[in-house]
């Protein structure tokens, strides 16, 4: 009788091997050392570029297709993006604007006192922070909200030591209520918290994939910049973030990465160096 042929066995790709090509190279070899080497390569390829990142989200991004408030499906999708990014080992903290609920500048334009309008805007950021906290906790991500305006029945008051402790305990931290002072935007609050936390990157999430020479939705000839210096952004008045935020990032040598939040999984791609973006840094 002819010898029985051994049927090839299908081997499932472990989650460790992010790349299908890497996995096929590994199982194509019967040499244990080759497989171990390939396994180490897979880990290296998945190593994030930033150890600690502050993500700045606008309040308007939470509206989704609605004209006001919080769209649950949108915030749930953003929460999944943050979870995937945190799973790479990066310590993540966030600052979220409040423009989907109330914008201080809009109140001033209608005749409100600037201080009162800005405090209302800060309270709007607390609402967004609590909503994002809930979305993250529901998918198993340990999260803390720290407010610059003390409101202990709602969330923890901000102290630098407390925030660092949470980050080092692998919790996601959401900073709410801006800087706690009127006349400062949430962009400035993001740059301030990034400096206080020792972040090695500040990711500014927008509706487009970087900084352009003109509005790409209006001007088809608008050119996207791969890199810019802080001084170029200020000199060209590109309005990526307000001037105080750019200057604060420059003085503390924190690169600003401008990328699109519209594509699912883009936060993870940014950490792996695969996202289309503009990096603002020193010369």
Number of domains: 2
Order of helical and strand elements: HHEHEHHEEHEHEEEEHHEHE
In spatial order, strands of the major sheet run 4-3-5-2-1-6-10-11-9
Give helix % range: 25-40%
CATH architecture of the largest domain: 3-Layer(aba) Sandwich
Share of residues in strands: 15-25%
Query: Based on helices, strands and strand pairing, what is the structural class?
Result: alpha/beta
CATH topology value of the largest domain = Carbamate kinase
Task: State the shape.
Answer: globular
Number of helices: 10
Characterize the biggest β-sheet.
Answer: 9 strands, mixed
Which stretches are poorly predicted, pLDDT < 50 over at least 5 residues? 5-27, 35-44
Mean pLDDT, to the nearest integer, reads 87
Total DSSP E strands: 11
Describe the overall structure:
The chain folds into two domains: 17-46, no CATH class; 47-281, Carbamate kinase. A nine-stranded mixed β-sheet has the order 4-3-5-2-1-6-10-11-9, with helices on both faces. A two-stranded antiparallel sheet has the order 7-8. It is globular, with a radius of gyration of 22 Å. Helix 3 (72-86) links the parallel strand 1 (52-57) and strand 2. Helix 1 runs antiparallel to helix 2, helix 3 (72-86) crosses helix 5 (114-138) and helix 7 runs parallel beside helix 9. It has helices at residues 20-27, 32-45, 72-86, 104-109, 114-138, 160-168, 186-197, 230-236, 243-251, 266-271; strands at 52-57, 91-96, 143-147, 156-157, 172-176, 201-206, 211-212, 224-225, 227-229, 256-260, 277-281. By secondary structure, it is of the alpha/beta class. Residues 5-27 and 35-44 have low confidence and may be disordered. It is built from ten helices and eleven strands.
């Amino acid at each position: 009788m002819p010898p029985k042929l051994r049927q090839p066995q299908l081997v499932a790709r472990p989650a460790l091997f992010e790349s299908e090509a890497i996995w096929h190279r590994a199982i194509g070899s019967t040499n244990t050392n080759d497989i171990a080497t390939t396994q180490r390569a897979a880990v290296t390829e998945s190593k994030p570029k930033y150890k600690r990142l502050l993500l700045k989200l606008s309040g308007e991004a939470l509206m989704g297709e609605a004209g006001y408030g919080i769209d649950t499906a949108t915030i749930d999708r953003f929460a999944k993006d943050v979870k995937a990014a945190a799973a790479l080992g990066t310590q993540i903290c966030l600052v979220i604007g409040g423009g989907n609920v109330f914008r201080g500048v809009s109140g001033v334009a209608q005749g409100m006192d600037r201080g009162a309008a800005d405090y209302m805007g800060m309270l709007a950021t607390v609402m967004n922070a609590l909503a994002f906290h809930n979305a993250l906790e529901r998918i198993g991500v340990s999260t803390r909200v720290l407010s610059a305006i003390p409101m202990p029945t709602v969330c923890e008051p901000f102290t630098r030591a407390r925030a660092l402790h949470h980050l080092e305990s692998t919790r996601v931290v959401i900073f709410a209520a801006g800087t706690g002072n009127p006349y400062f935007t949430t962009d400035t609050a993001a740059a301030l918290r990034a400096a206080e936390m020792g972040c090695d990157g500040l990711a500014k999430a927008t509706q487009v994939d970087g900084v352009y020479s003109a509005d790409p939705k209006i001007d088809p000839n608008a050119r996207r910049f791969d890199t810019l210096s802080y001084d170029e952004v200020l000199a060209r008045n590109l309005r990526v973030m307000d001037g105080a935020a750019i200057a604060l990032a420059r003085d503390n040598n924190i690169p600003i990465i401008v990328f699109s939040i519209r594509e699912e999984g883009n936060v993870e791609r940014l950490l792996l160096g695969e996202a289309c973006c503009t990096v603002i840094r020193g010369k």
